[in-house]
Amino acid sequence: MKVLVTGAAGFIGSYVVQELLDHQYSVVALDNLSKGNKSRVSLGATFYEADINSEEIGHIFQFEQPDFVIHLAAQSSVLESMERPIEDCQANVLGTLNILRLSNQFNVKKFILASSAAVYGNPTSLPVKENSKLAPLSFYALSKISAENYVHLYEKMFGLKSCILRFSNVFGPNQESGVIDSLLNRISRMEAPIINNGSQTRDFIYVKDVAAACLTALVSYETGVFQISSGIETTINELFKLISHVTNIEIEPLIKELDASEIKRSVLSNEKAVNLLHWEPNYSLEEGIEEIIQSYNMVEQL
Known about the structure:
The chain has eleven helices and 13 strands. It has about 300 residues and is an alpha/beta fold. The chain folds into two domains: about 1-170 and about 205-230, Rossmann fold (3-Layer(aba) Sandwich), CATH 3.40.50.720; about 170-200 and about 230-265 and about 285-300, UDP-galactose 4-epimerase, domain 1 (Alpha-Beta Complex), CATH 3.90.25.10. α1 packs across α7 (about 205-220), α6 runs parallel beside α8 and α8 packs across α10. The longest helix has 21 residues, at about 85-105.
């Protein structure tokens, strides 16, 4: 079976490509390299440098005839979405629509969309479930909701089977962004970590668990929306203490005010994915942080 992965040279995409190759799938890796790095993509995949909105994508579908599509390519920065909402919409809405259109045209068996916990905004009750109210606080979140709606309608109108995976806060080696990467980088340079308030909570899920979830959703007969998360609520202060413990370095952090637009609390129930997809996370937050340190050879630095 052949799987086309968009955003394949990105942080999550590179792990998804490797997960598929490890399970003997043929992989077509697609990325415009605006943020991705080609060196991340396993040599076992067939790589195309192309934008998901370009005409070239149609030729790639026609030539490769993929059986499945995992759509990870996106503009993923909340800040950039607020500064450049048109570009955000072009990537996340029009780009998704183009990949959906071609998936339907070339009879793809199943379409997997990467979405985000950001669609819930500041939830009124926790843990968040798949049927919780959607309340976007950014154009990024709004574009993800729009992309989800296109996926739903394509399944309803054309029978294109799909799974929408709403990821919580994904972390892991080679991320180059996010709170865990920021804290580890500053600690490795013996600089004071910057924490905005610290009482806000997040649900951290390791990238290898996310890659496994993408494959599980691909082979499952189930369709619909699933939350891919640890189901554990962790404050940023607790995260910092854990990182200090794992690295055995204690540096007094710089505490700043929390941005008004930042989500205060977030934890996603993974019960539906566990029960229906038969997926569950294998990595704890501490185990994931330890792997990051080992991958960056930070043991010597720390």
